[in-house]
UniProtKB/TrEMBL annotation:
Protein name stated in the entry: Calnexin homolog
InterPro entries xrefs: Calret/calnex (IPR001580), Calret/calnex_CS (IPR018124), Calreticulin/calnexin_P_dom_sf (IPR009033), ConA-like_dom_sf (IPR013320)
Family: Belongs to the calreticulin family.
Biased composition (Acidic residues): 252-265, 272-283, 290-299, 516-527
Source organism of the structure: Castanea mollissima (Chinese chestnut)
Length: 577
């Protein structure tokens, strides 16, 4: 009986083991490709033999770890290396996850740290000649230099009508982390045409491949385009205002009157020394012994301020000060009135776009190789744990097992180094959160035009922590500028697409103007106003960014004032580091 009872238990145990083994194998099968660089890359990765790529790749440990990676070992070099995959990866079926780690051990001022996912070699390239022109399907990863600071995602997509491959750039991509820690970058391509960009497992950007709002240029071209052969008629008048031809300069308008005149009511101050010069020869100066009058000319003592003038209201000839002339009007110009011949801002007629096509899903090109082709001014860039997977959970498990422990250890080491350097852990940690928030604010789409300027300010603040508040104030001013332009920015009336005409403006009551006012009247914005709903959304984003930045500023100020260090059991000291 006992023997019979043991058989079912044994079977259950075997079945459970088999089930878990199947689950592990199933998960492993979702790792389409994985490179840990634990083994030397020689023989597996091919270094480009092109002359321009002089940078030396090394199989090296990450600083402070026993974990190996692929290292950029020299500054100011071009690098190119490629790994051909055993099987071509199809991006059209199901979810595909692209993931890799990068550690900028010496920072990154100017250079790239991105990967290129290459098309099959039938597209016209060979591994030993891998270069910038080798055709890729996707380019993904950090890039930073000058005004550029972004995590690229570029899709090369074929136009079925023209046959041309076009680079489509993700709009408003996230910024590159500014520290020297290990970071993991993830791009998730989903079958519903959505893409998510993650940094360290946190979603930083979500977009749709078919949305014109998310990619530049859009994957789906516009249905119509401006007619390149349409020309503006010679009699087309775009001036909405013109000088009033019936206006006459007033008789009392004196164009020759000076802007300033002498103040006849001014009186010379009492004690003014008319006969004393403002400067006198220095009585203590003497001609140098080696001075030669014939070669050096006649020696003259240097001048000093007249000491008698210090106690007096002034020295030398007194002159009446000037004041603004109340009769000054400047050059007269006729007042501007509505132009009766105004037709609006001319635009060419729209015609059907010959390159237009409809698209339900992106026509992804398959991936046959992974390449790194970069130019960088920094060394110490370490690539590691390159993964292609068919499941988001698989990518997450790799992040937790390969990246997370290293990142946590590096963060602890960084805190210890800051403490050893005498920095306040509370204050430095607070400032780190401030800068992290600022980097999130700068990714708001409405600040795209100002992004390089803001990032430059943030980086200066990180290098010089004492100017943190000044940096935040500068960001606040930029956001205020955007906000007020949205509120009060001028706009031109829309042109009728059929007639190319703009409705005339209301008549003006202006009677005359000086040259200064006329110049101001001529300064108008050319861009059309955004649609009302989008305008409200942008204003909301601006308000939100402004409020967050102001709260950060207030919090930082309070932190600087109220951060207390205990000096002894009876005394305390306020720290404003």
């Amino acid at each position: 009986m006992e023997g019979r009872r043991k058989i079912p238990k044994l079977l259950i145990a075997v079945l459970l083991i088999a089930f878990f083994a199947f689950q592990i194998c199933a998960s492993a099968s979702d790792a389409i490709y994985y490179e840990s660089f634990e083994e030397p890359f020689d023989g597996r990765w091919i270094v480009s033999q092109k002359d321009e790529y002089q940078g030396v790749w090394k199989h090296s440990k990450s600083e402070g770890h026993d974990d190996y990676g692929l290292l950029v070992s020299e500054k100011a070099r071009k690098y190119a290396i490629v790994k051909e995959l055993d099987h071509v990866v199809n991006l059209k079926d199901g979810t595909v996850v692209l993931q890799f780690e990068v550690r900028l051990q010496d920072g990154l001022e100017c250079g790239g740290a991105y990967l290129k996912y290459l098309r099959p070699q039938e597209a016209g390239w060979i591994a030993k000649e891998f270069d910038n022109d080798s055709p890729y399907s996707i380019m993904f990863g950090p890039d930073k230099c000058g005004s550029t600071n972004k995590v690229h995602f570029i899709l090369k997509h074929k136009n079925p009508n023209s046959g041309e491959y076009v680079e489509h750039h993700l709009k408003y991509p996230p910024s590159v982390p500014s520290d020297k820690l290990s970071h993991v970058y993830t791009a998730i391509l989903r079958p519903d045409n959505e893409i998510s960009i993650l940094i360290d497992g946190e979603e930083k950007k979500k977009a749709n491949f078919l949305s014109a709002e998310d990619f530049e240029p859009p994957l789906v071209p516009a249905k119509t385009i401006p007619d390149p052969n349409d020309k503006k008629p010679e009699d087309w008048d775009e001036r909405d205002k013109i000088p009033d031809p019936d206006a006459v300069k007033p008789d009392d308008w004196d164009e020759d009157a000076p802007m300033e005149i002498e103040d006849e009511e001014a009186v010379k101050p009492e004690g003014w020394l008319d006969d004393e010069p403002e400067e006198i020869d220095d009585p203590d100066a003497s001609k140098p012994e080696d001075w030669d009058d014939e070669e050096d000319g006649e020696w003259e003592p240097p001048k000093i301020d007249n000491p008698k003038c210090e106690a007096a209201p002034g020295c030398g000839e007194w002159k009446r000060p000037t004041k603004r002339n109340p009769a000054y009007k400047g050059k007269w110009h006729a007042p501007r009135i509505d132009n009766p011949n105004y037709k609006g801002i001319w635009k060419p007629q729209e015609i059907p776009n010959p390159d237009y096509f409809e698209l339900e899903k992106p026509d992804f090109e398959p991936i046959a190789a992974i390449g790194i082709e970069i130019w960088t001014m920094q060394d110490g860039i370490l690539f590691d744990n390159i993964l292609i997977a068919g499941d988001e959970k698989v990518a997450e498990s790799y992040r937790l097992t390969t990246w997370k422990p290293k990142f946590e250890a590096e963060k602890e080491k960084q805190k210890a180094e800051e403490a050893a350097a005498g920095q306040s852990e509370g204050l430095s940690g607070f400032k780190k959160k401030v800068f992290d928030l600022l980097y999130k604010i700068v990714d708001i789409p409405l600040l795209e035009a100002y992004k390089p300027k803001i990032i430059d300010l943030i980086e200066k603040g990180e290098q010089q922590p004492d100017i943190t508040i000044g940096v935040i104030v500068s960001v606040v001013l930029i956001i205020l500028t955007v906000f007020f332009r949205l509120l009060f920015g001028g706009k031109k009336a829309a042109v009728n697409t059929e007639t190319n005409r703009v409705p005339p403006a209301e008549p003006s009551d202006n009677q005359g103007t000086s040259v200064e006012n006329e110049d101001e009247d001529e300064k108008e914005e050319d861009a059309a106003a955004a649609p009302p709903r989008r305008r409200i959304l942008i204003m909301f984003q601006a308000s939100h960014a402004l409020m967050v930045t102001l709260l950060i500023t207030f919090g930082l100020c309070m932190h600087r004032v109220c951060f207390v260090k205990t000096v002894s059991s009876k005394t305390a000291k306020i720290s404003c580091n």
